[in-house]
Amino acid sequence: MRKIFFPLIGAVAVVTATLSAHAEHGEAPIEGIMQNFIALDEPVAAPLTPLVSKDEGPITLDRFQGKFIVLNFWATWCGPCLRELPSLNRLNAQLAGDDFAVVLISQDRGGFKQTDRFLKKLEVDIPANFVDEKLKYSRAIGVRSLPTTILIGPDGKEVGRLVGSAEWDEPEAIALIEFYRAHAAETTGRGGHLGKTPKF
Asked: Distance of CA 60 to CAs 53, 71, 79, 140, 190, Å?
């Protein structure tokens, strides 16, 4: 138990200290493994372009309004994506609930027959995983390379993105996510909604 407990305490302490240091200045803690995170000056509503779900057919991301989501674009042919997925799985296991979710969007042409096999092999169990047929959603939201991970507030607005892989359950990543979650209520209060496409 001690080998698990003390590292966890250390991680919590790092997140708390990082948040406290940046909260005084109202700045997102963009540092360490998150140093390449691109924060938007003003949040922009995510598009309503349909995605394909495994059991329900076409869906749009407005079903996640009210939740802070970590939106990850990946593919089975993308090595960095596959290395990153287990950390997203751990992040989802740690934070998933009524107000948070990790959402996977695959660019694979082979659909769920292809993606399910890889997710099972990697022991990744993230319920919210979809396929972007013909890359329509990827183009609409401005994803040009993989992996790309976008943070979207409960009002459906993108607050920023990271192009490239990261260990999303590391303290620096969690501190960044928690910073934006702490400011989500204020953002939602301004009446944001899904629909407008960000320009990159």
From this structure: 9, 13, 27, 13, 22
Q: Give the span between the Cα atoms of 167 and 172, in whole angstroms.
A: 9
C-alpha count within 13 angstroms, C-beta hemisphere, residue 80? 13
- Give the Cα-Cα-Cα angle 34, 187, 64 (nearest 5 degrees): 80
- The three-state secondary structure class of 59 is strand
Residues 77-114 pLDDT 10s: 999 999 999 999 999 999 999 999 999 999 999 999 99
113: buried, middle or exposed (CB in 10 Å: 19+, 13-18, 0-12)?
A: exposed
State both tokens at 46: 């995510």
* pTM to 2 decimal places: 0.83
The CATH number of 2-188, from 1.20.1260.10, 3.40.30.10, 3.40.50.150, 1.10.10.10, is: 3.40.30.10
